[in-house]
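QA checklist item 7 of 12: single-chain prediction sanity check.
[x] sequence parsed
[x] length recorded as 584
[x] structure emitted
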Amino acid sequence: MKRFFGNAIQAKGIMDDAVRFVIDQQLKDRKTWKLYIDVFSSREDSADERWRGEYFGKQMRGACYAYMYTHDEELYDILTWAAEEIIKTQDSYGRISTYTTDNEFCGWDMWCRKYVLTGLQHYYRICKDEQLKEKILAVCCKHLDYIADKIGAGKIEITSTSMWWGAVNSCTILEPTVELYKMTGREKYLDFARYIISTGGSSDCNLIELALDGSLMPYQYPVTKAYEMMSFYEGLIAYYEVTGEQKYFDTAERFFEAVAQSDITIIGCAGCTHELFDHSAVMQTEHSEHIMQETCVTVTWIRIMARMYLLTADAKYYDRIEQAGYNALYGSLNTEQCPQKELVSGQYFPAKTFDSYSPLYMNTRGRGIGGFLTFANGEYGGCCVAIGACGVSLMPLLAVVCDENTVYVNQQFSGTVTVKDNCSKDVLLAFENQRPQDCCCITVQADCDLNIQIRMPNWCKSMSVNGKAVSCAEYYDVSGHYNAGDKIVFEWKRTLEKHQINDKIAFTYGELVMAVDSAKCSTDIKAPIHISGKPAYKMLEPEAGELVRIECQTDDGVLLLTDYQSCGKKWTQENNMISVWLNM
């Protein structure tokens, strides 16, 4: 099983910039943390049965990953304060809830309680104070004990605790329930996990049987809410990790493969109709008046693919992380700090760090705030804003990983990684990314014997190591003895590739999806284009915020393409339409 290097990796460039941006603009803002915590005392969700209680746990999880990467001690102090404040809201029954006892276990109550567990469990893993860790563990146990005492066979059925999506949102508490079993060994929690599994995860259908059967794709299930469904299947993976029951791994794996086939788009997200599975692998080329490609779905897909990758060592999961991260995720960062629009009223609100929805065909960014809710003091929150830090923090943590014996290099980047050699000696590896030459140089800083493997991406047409063309399925082995100053230079050949479906055409350059941006070009981006054969193109110098700028020759003239993540960021200005898919 692979694992993170944590703060032993320090990157430069987009991976590091994204984490620092979110830390500075969001995670160090104590006012936001207090807003997310106070709702557990005010019980504001009781009045409208909403989900304000999810924001704390979502943000805490992402913030803990950010700390694992940066070891920013100011951030750690804020997270410690936030953890101590949230546990103060626990009542005498053990509840940490944004609902009152009069209307608990309805709406999004269980979903929010799930995120309390998730947030505290992630803080527990970075906590350096043993007494505080003991206190947090006791708080988590008391919190879940109350739930398990009330919910179950012959009690309140978990599938009746929400009117939304057959209560699959409630059933996602499966994953942190199993995690608490891992932390405590208490059989009671494994029993509660077995009960949740026995329900099939929804009152509308049995999600386990549907995935195992395989005759329907996820968008054809009675429940199609992408984010919550994926989270339930993640719980099955957690259950497999502690029981070894292969059925549950197979169930989740088949579901994830079905999603990858039927619903993951070119930018690595799912859902072109709101946040729902809708066969978006095909639907992605069509204009939609709906919000689409939700950032919560992007981050959840990245997070679950990370879990599958670390568990199985299968590089296809990292390919999906890279696709989603460099396109949908980085594209959602509100780097221009544009005001954000509420979907129903159309009113603009102050900028947050993430946009919630990503367009694919002839549309604009900044179309709505996902999971928008206001608080009693007039401030607002959003689900995608709360979850986004998790995605951007996982990207550098996954760039280089290890197992007991081997270092796996997954990304070309500039920065450093401290690894262990075969004698468990610390060895510094210095990475220098040499864009746009498509190569990266690793300099070994000490004499060592090192097991190291370099990934060959699924989009890569050819790879060379130290000037020699090599071939491999997933990773190329460069293990051996190294002297201080030795270099490993590996090149991933990137070319402009075209993709055609539904009489539309799109372009990729390596891991990057390309797009047209009406603010960057003088041509009509809606005009049909014609390209005979393989596209001819010229690389241009990227402008601010861009990774790649390409001048593509079509039969009709020149088409300016830039990386999708850089397009449409100034969405409050006129002439801000972008498109991945172009008319043919």
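[x] summary fact logged: The mean pLDDT is 96.
[ ] second reviewer sign-off
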